[in-house]
Amino acid sequence: LFAFLIPSLSCANSTELIITTEEYPPFNYTDKSSGKIVGIATDIIREAMRRAEVKYTLKLLSWQRAIFLARNKENTCVYSTTVTPERLPEFKWVGPIVENKWVFMSKQRSGIIINSMSDAKPYVIGGYRGDATALYLKKLGMTVDAADNDAQNPIKLKMGRIDLWATGHLLGPYYATEAEVENFEILFIFKELVMSLACHKSVPDQIITALNDVIKEMEKDGFTLNAQGKYR
Questions:
Q1: What does the DSSP assignment read for 167-188?
Q2: DSSP bridge pairs for 227
Q3: For residues 152 and 129, what is the distance between their CA atoms, to the nearest angstrom?
Q4: Are the C-beta atoms of residues 15 and 55 closer than 8 Å to each other?
Q5: Beta-strand (E) ranges in the chain?
Q6: By the 8 A CB rule, do 226 and 38 touch?
Q7: How far apart are CA 106 and CA 184, in angstroms?
Q8: pLDDT of residue 13
Q9: Are strands 76-82 and 184-199 parallel, antiparallel or unpaired?
Q10: Could you tell me the pLDDT band of residue 4, with boundaries at 50, 70 and 90?
Q11: What is the C-alpha to C-alpha distance for residues 230 and 44, in angstroms, rounded to an integer?
Q12: What 8-state DSSP symbol labels residue 90?
């Protein structure tokens, strides 16, 4: 039996993954001074690949392109991918990598009060194309004005082109600061979830298992917590 396992393990060890991601700070983004892809999730992914001895190439793309490749190209993965019921059967999963909260943001003193999802129904909500947050809100029948990327939404909110901005609890404030747009506030947290590494189904099971094992190990030895603190 052992002899039959050798080729399979050898194949897994020789596989080089293409890992795609997007600009989604502070989880994954380009550091302007170095040009490197950094962030909480990036540090965790890089360390997991090192510990599991998996070869990989990391590429930063638009979200739509990044997840398209993970769905359609062999040995390709994408992060930070929100785990949704629709996506669950499409990929093999490694994680969870990080936690995220979806929030509604508005201008300060906007007069908008959100205590439930139904309270957001009358408003035009900013999101971006292909993002799980925007897709979730559209499914609920919300009016979503989808930008090409989330970095455009603080400007749209400032200009009054949208009433609310649906974004991540860390991502939104980051992009608002980058755009030098002030006087925003988080009105309502409408979902708390996890984001993971989503891999094409061709990725060998041995790699998926090894990566999930080291992700658990990193949680226990404090690496994950340190990565989170580094970008806060």
A1: EETTHHHHHHHHTT---EEEEE
A2: none
A3: 12
A4: yes
A5: 16-21, 29-30, 37-38, 55-60, 76-82, 92-107, 124-128, 143-147, 164-168, 184-199
A6: no
A7: 6
A8: 66
A9: antiparallel
A10: very low
A11: 12
A12: G
Q: What is the pLDDT of residue 6?
A: 38
What pLDDT digit, counting tens, does each position of 71-125 carry?
A: 999 999 999 999 999 999 999 999 999 999 999 999 999 999 999 999 999 999 9
Band (pLDDT 50/70/90 cuts) for residue 231 is: confident
Beta strand pairing call for 92-107 and 164-168:
antiparallel
Cα separation of 75 and 16, whole Å? Answer: 7
Question: Bridge-partner residues for 191, per DSSP?
Answer: 102
In SS3 terms, 153-166 reads as HHHHHHCCCCCEEE
Contact of 166 with 103, CB cutoff 8 Å = yes
Tokens of 52: 């599991």
The total number of residues written for the chain in this structure: 232
